[in-house]
Design goal:
It is a single chain. By secondary structure, this protein is α/β, with parallel strands linked by helices. It contains 16 helices and 20 strands. The chain is 39% helix and 20% strand. A seven-stranded mixed β-sheet has the order 14-15-16-13-12-17-18, sandwiched between helices. Strands 9-8-7-10-11-19 form a six-stranded mixed β-sheet, sandwiched between helices. Strand 8, helix 7 and strand 9 form a beta-alpha-beta unit. Helix 2 packs antiparallel against helix 5 and helix 5 packs parallel to helix 6. Bound molecules: nicotinamide-adenine-dinucleotide (NAD). The site of nicotinamide-adenine-dinucleotide has 29 residues, from helix 8 and helix 9. This is Betaine-aldehyde dehydrogenase.
Length: 479
């Protein structure tokens, strides 16, 4: 099985081999090397940024609808090739083909379509001032740097590229070193769809390459999807050059299940909120607060359904739960499970697993102070916590530095909206969880991030306003 791309990087419309250190790509299920890439050298990062800066003005000068049509064509190509692209995504990430077929490139295509269609409708303001008047122009930022995480590599590349490009920016994208393949496909597809050379470039590498990219003098904006510690470093580096930032970071989100919730739906959502993509999702509802009246029924049904999850070969369409992205990450998750047990929580089901696999795992008898209830695990580990009343659960749900997402399950309409209004989270669900349609802005508050992806809101994060005052008469100077 091989997935070797034509070259490691994509600069100025062409595949280019990296001049830096080797970057082996392993299929998480078998550990086999499926490709060997090379990092970009410092000179290649600079070349990618120069190519982007050179290509950007002509791209920005096109009518927005024309830029939109390029994105729409790219979306159509992605949909045509979804089967092959999804297989590559599974090889790169280890996620079950059952998921990648519907959630990864498909969601990337949705973003390209959405922003492609939105472009022509973005306008400025006309501001009457009596005799004089002013107007605003929404202009591109210039060269944007995109840096991705490994859990949704192709979706992340599309979610960043679509709003950036449609607003007339150019982009240099660095995927995670764990999952470098999808972004290269996106670069090829965009060229095929008519994107001018240099407008979307891909460099590969670890943290140092990312650091070189965000400090390049051409870069006006940095959009990162990653962990909070990385976010802090990247935000600080971006501040040196007064660059714009979007930070999509980690979370420890609460999912609150009230006594009156539909049991099957709440259990199903809690599983989706913890086990999809082997739990490697930033917005996961990993603190499941269950009200005391429904607790026993909830846990009994949860255990029953979790035991039926099909774990195995990610390329088997029946598989629902695949391996963890890397042995190092699996070890980290196991250490967190061991810490939970050492602190006195009990396993309802699951456990450390073996090799590449960590099975769906549920903790009971946990407290808010335990590390499994405080720290992001980024694996298939759910911590259930019991609560008694609404005020109490809101206080406990908010008692975290994170603020990415939250969910509420109840049949009581007014309670649902009242609770959601009090939750400190950028993205909330009522009687649903982890649905992220491109029409809806997505992002975090507190330590979970700055800015929003998706929805019309993303346009503001990839453009800037120029104000133009128009004098219609003489200049009244007091000199
Ligand atoms: P990570 O923070 O280790 O790495 C993210 C990216 O940043 C990688 O491409 C990495 O090479 C790069 N990087 C690391 N140090 C850098 C530096 N100093 N300068 C520039 N670039 C640097 O994250 P990860 O382990 O790849 O992904 C998991 C994390 O991402 C989790 O915390 C998860 O919650 C978060 N995440 C957030 C979202 C969201 O939308 N909010 C989505 C997916 C993942």
């Amino acid at each position: 099985m091989t997935a070797q791309p034509p070259a490691s990087l994509f600069i100025d419309g062409r595949p280019v081999e990296g001049e830096g250190a080797a970057l082996p790509v392993r299929y998480p299920y078998t550990g086999a090397e499926i490709a060997r890439l090379h990092e970009a050298s410092a000179a290649q990062v600079a070349a990618a940024c120069r190519a982007a800066a050179a290509a950007q003005p002509a791209w920005a000068a096109l009518a927005p609808a024309e830029r939109g049509r390029v994105l729409a064509r790219a979306a159509a190509i992605i949909r045509d090739r979804n089967a092959d692209l999804s297989r590559l995504e599974t090889l790169d990430t280890g996620k079950p083909i059952q998921e990648t077929l519907v959630a990864d490139w498909e969601s990337g295509a949705a973003a390209l379509d959405f922003f492609g269609g939105l472009a022509a409708g973005v306008t400025g303001q006309m501001i009457p001032l009596g005799r004089d008047w002013a107007y605003t122009r929404r202009e591109p930022l210039g060269v944007c740097a995109g840096i991705g995480a490994w859990n949704y590599p192709s979706q992340i590349a599309c979610w960043k590229a679509a709003p950036a490009l449609v607003m007339g920016n150019a982009m240099v994208f660095k995927p995670s070193e764990e999952t470098p393949l999808g972004a290269l496909k996106l670069a090829e597809i965009l060229i095929e769809a008519g994107l001018p050379a240099g407008v979307f470039n891909v460099v590969q590498g670890r943290a140092e390459v990312g650091a070189a990219l965000i400090s390049d003098r051409h870069v006006a904006k940095v959009s990162l999807t990653g962990s909070v510690p990385t976010g802090r470093r990247v935000y600080a580096a971006a501040a040196e050059g007064m660059r714009h930032v979007t930070m999509e970071l980690g979370g420890k989100s609460p999912l609150i299940v009230f006594d009156d919730a539909s049991l099957e739906d709440a259990v199903g959502a809690a599983m989706l909120a913890n086990f999809y993509s082997s739990g490697q999702i930033c917005s996961n509802g990993t603190r499941v607060f269950v009200q005391d009246g429904i607790r026993d029924r909830f846990l009994a049904r949860l255990a029953e359904r979790v035991r039926q999850v099909k774990i195995g070969d990610p390329l088997d369409p029946e598989t629902q739960h695949g391996p963890i992205v890397s042995p190092a990450q699996a070890d980290r998750i196991r250490a967190m499970i061991a810490a939970g047990q050492a602190e006195g929580a009990r396993l309802l089901c699951g456990g450390p697993g073996a090799g590449a696999f960590v099975p769906p795992t549920v903790f009971v008898d946990a407290t808010d102070a335990m590390s499994i209830a405080r720290d992001e695990i980024f694996g298939p580990v759910m911590t259930t916590l019991v609560f008694h009343d609404e005020d109490e659960v809101v206080t406990r749900a908010n008692a975290t530095g994170f603020g990415l997402a939250a969910g509420v399950f109840t049949q009581d309409l007014t309670r649902a909206h009242r609770v959601v209004a009090r939750l400190e989270a950028g993205t909330c669900w009522i009687n649903a969880y982890n649905l992220t349609p491109v029409e809806m802005p997505f992002g975090g508050v507190k330590m979970s991030g700055i800015g929003r992806e998706n929805g019309a809101a993303a346009i503001e994060h990839y453009s800037q306003i120029k104000s133009v005052y128009v004098g219609m008469g003489g200049v009244d100077a007091p000199y």
